[in-house]
Amino acid sequence: MSLTPKSALNIAKVLSESLPYIQRFSGKTIVVKYGGNAMVDERLKQGFARDMVLMKLVGMNPVVVHGGGPQIGNLLTRLGKESQFIDGMRVTDSETMDVVIMVLGGLVNKEIVNLVNQCGGKAVGLTGKDGNLIRARKLTNTRGPEIAASEIIDLGHVGEVEHVDTSVIHMLIGGDFIPIVAPIGVGDDGHSYNINADLVAGKLAQALGAEKLILLTNTAGLLDANGELVAGLDDQEVEKQIESGTIHSGMLPKIRSALDAVQAGVNSAHIIDGRVEHAVLLEIFTTEGVGTLIRQHSK
């Protein structure tokens, strides 16, 4: 079926608009946290894989960090094990950690690798345990007022990033591969730790000196008190919104990851709507974008 003149003109405009962005970001590293609806909707999954391949072909270096919470929960349910969450974090005992490694490091990771490869890319899957990529430490959640005896919550094999060794990522990028990273780290004790994927993506972007950090979510981006999309703000404005309580709940880990990244030298962070097909390309290659842009305050 041939294109109408109007459709052809729209395509030409999009391609023309993308040229300066391709030139600007060629050779740059872009870390993408992949999760939410984009990981379960077949159309969105295919679109995401194509986006990563296109970015690589025009000279960018995409690095993908993926989640997999729903997939972990589904397998635990099938095994007859109940999921327990405290303040949004999955309590991860030894049995649950085995499932996390199986799902994140195996099933989910290899599916993403396969999708990218089927689209003509060269993807390699790894966890933070490979090449000592992510050194982790045990995360202990503290509840209660600071002036009183706080309740210490043991979350089991839940960790936070202590150190990132980017050697294996640089080796893969140098070999023209697209790294697909599962957010599992290893501690000095040799134990594996389940780490929040937003946190891993932010820390990896910092360690790689990435040009951009892109976090896919299931909302349009950061919303204000009236539910309207905030197109852009700097790190100081983000701090104020956190203090006022405007930013809260499930958005808080993403915002903190983005905030830490830009304050550590990543040029910009983007919280975008993963429910939109080709959201990553729209954010990178168009003037309008499809989410919230966070930059460091101009001095």
What do you see in this structure?
The chain has nine helices and 14 strands. The chain is α/β, with parallel strands linked by helices and 299 residues long. The strands form four sheets. An eight-stranded mixed β-sheet has the order 5-8-2-1-11-13-14-12, sandwiched between helices. Strands 3-4 form a two-stranded antiparallel sheet. The longest helix has 25 residues, at 94-118.
- Through-space gap between termini: 53 Å
What is the makeup of the main sheet? 8 strands, mixed
- Chain-averaged pLDDT: 85
- Unreliable stretches covering 5 or more consecutive residues: 142-152
Kindly state the percentage of residues in helix: 40-55%
% residues in beta strands? 25-35%
C-alpha geometry: globular
Structure class: alpha/beta
Q: Could you tell me the number of beta strands? A: 14
Describe what is shown at a glance.
Helix content is 41%, strand content 25%. With 299 residues, it is an alpha/beta fold. Strands 5-8-2-1-11-13-14-12 form an eight-stranded mixed β-sheet, sandwiched between helices. The chain has a two-stranded antiparallel ribbon with strand order 3-4.
Which characteristics define this entry?
299 residues; alpha/beta; 9 helices; 14 strands; 25% strand; globular
Write the layout of secondary structure elements.
Elements: H1 5-25, E1 29-34, H2 42-57, E2 61-66, H3 69-78, E3 85-86, E4 89-90, H4 94-118, E5 123-127, E6 134-143, E7 151-164, H5 167-174, E8 178-182, E9 184-186, E10 192-194, H6 197-208, E11 212-217, E12 232-234, H7 235-244, H8 251-263, E13 268-273, H9 279-285, E14 291-295
Parallel strand pairs: 1-2, 1-11, 2-8, 5-8, 11-13, 12-14
Antiparallel strand pairs: 3-4, 6-7, 9-10, 13-14
